[in-house]
């Protein structure tokens, strides 16, 4: 499978970073943005406004013309999880049948409880859904710092071909056919990272942070197993690896949101204008957990803080006063 021409839809920080990664891998890359003013600004500056100080590779063509997608051998859909369906539908007619369309958002659609590859399958029926996730910050990837991620497609040959097309010495996609495991790891860890941020913002200490991350991972494993994920995926880059990264770094928007909540900021203002996918995923995750009777107290506490049902102190007390039990 020849995948020499890559289209990246979404010119935010992560879109720009993945466009640079694909160019560094030797592919022809088109970076697509729908807003004409944004296209003009990026062409002029060779930078995404969401990733200042990091230049786009000169080989990347910046475009606002959806017809350019018709020539792509693979499409990276790099838009927020809750906007992915709209973006996919808008571009469906320009994508050739059989083209891999890779979801690069970490979330679950609200209302439908659909995973990102399910949204792609419904919105672009002729496409081949895939997903890319893992421990990665846009600035690191865009600058060519070493990063490893997981790339999943239903057919092994497709997953391998996509990994080869995007892989380079500094950007290493490990391939799998476990779509659901990759998606669940990315979505659930965002919610848990908000919890880790709350612990940090409240000054509860490193021991509490370690406890929350560990028990949160146990919840991720329970949820993933119930929804068909493979355990080796959940303990790999797109599960445990991503959880470790986002539960420990202020570069994570979800962790930073949690820090603000822990310091007493109201949920409506705590994001400071940054998109934290976990804020939208938390309630969906809990609804899906309840449907399968999965115990997720850490994620439930985060969801309760976000929707205003519990304050931070009450949520913390609820977790600390749970009955003692075997690990």
What is the fold's blueprint, element by element?
Elements: E1 5-9, H1 13-24, E2 28-32, H2 36-45, E3 60-63, E4 74-77, H3 84-91, E5 100-103, H4 116-123, E6 128-133, H5 138-142, E7 147-153, H6 156-166, E8 171-176, H7 179-201, H8 206-226, H9 231-234, H10 237-246, H11 253-262, H12 277-291, H13 297-306, H14 312-320
Parallel strand pairs: 1-2, 1-4, 2-3, 4-5, 5-6, 7-8
Antiparallel strand pairs: 6-7
Helix pairs in contact: 3-4, 7-8, 7-10, 7-11, 7-12, 7-13, 12-13, 13-14
How would you sum up this structure, described in words?
This protein is α/β, with parallel strands linked by helices and 327 residues long. It is built from 14 helices and 8 strands. It has helices at 13-24, 36-45, 84-91, 116-123, 138-142, 156-166, 179-201, 206-226, 231-234, 237-246, 253-262, 277-291, 297-306, 312-320, and strands at residues 5-9, 28-32, 60-63, 74-77, 100-103, 128-133, 147-153, 171-176. It has an 8-stranded mixed β-sheet with strand order 3-2-1-4-5-6-7-8, with helices on both faces. α7 packs parallel to α11 (253-262), α7 (179-201) packs across α12 and α13 (297-306) runs antiparallel to α14 (312-320). The termini are far apart.
